[in-house]
Amino acid sequence: MDLQIQALPVTHTRTTTAHLLN
What we know:
Blueprint: H1 2-7, H2 9-21
């Protein structure tokens, strides 16, 4: 999972934020 976060930090952050907001 760390590799995905490092590869797409912005996408991961936005996706996580979207889930938290929703």
